[in-house]
Fold this protein.
Amino acid sequence: MITVSHPKSKTEWQALRGRDVTASVVGALFDASPFLSRRALWEAKANNRERLVAETPAMQRGRLLEPVGVQLIAEQHPDWRLHHNAADDTYYRDPDIRLGGTPDLLVEAPERGKGIIQIKSVERSIFKSNWLDSDGEIDVPLWIALQATVEAYLTGASWAAVAALTVSHGIDLHLIEVPLRDGLIEAIKARVVEFWDQVASNIPPDWDYAQDQALIARHFGDGDPEHEIDLTGDNRMPILVAERIALQAERKAAEERIAEIDAEVQARLGTAQVAHIGQGLRITWELSHRAGFSVPPKTYRALRYPRSLPNL
């Protein structure tokens, strides 16, 4: 049975979310979240500590543009009845497995029935690199598709979609349907049950070394100056150390070569602050001013290149 709660404050809403795996983080259980690993989620729930992340500029953009997304959807689909859930943060929950979510937009559409729409604000370059496949077709990132699937399940919706907002000279709305695939919600529920079993058994998932670097540093604190460890039998350590030494050497060589290239380019520019190099591209070597805060103010020339060269 799905329960529905109407929290009276953000604090109450966060407390409701803290006891569950929510739709927005379920992607971590499939190693699909770009901002949260399975281990980080386990650490938060095992220690009864909800992840309260300071609002980033991207998060602020998403919060401010969400009502704009609702308005754009209303204009494009005037026959749809919309409820923007941000008005009350209604929280839906499956208490048996501790799975919850707060959908952005609830929809009643003629001939389609009840649906949910997850609204995402996406910077244009990120949309191009993470949302478009090799043919230029929109492919919703897995973690967002999982989020929409969970919200459709919790609300009893028969369809789900994602509204991606990209901003340039105007605001582009991409409304993409998320297929509610047979068996997917059961797979999600199984992962959630397995996760809570790991929490109850105090068995953490493995570290994700790509995502957990800061978490590992915090987890082990300042270390123990009296503690030494013998890893002579760990065959992985020499491989890691050798690879790091090789990468350090490659980085040093690359940095040295970059410095040589900069010097040659600067010599070719001479006193010119702008150099046109064809195909509409240019290199600039202009004066740049650094304000004096904790360091003395400084004026220097900043060499800037085009980001890429076409047809190379």
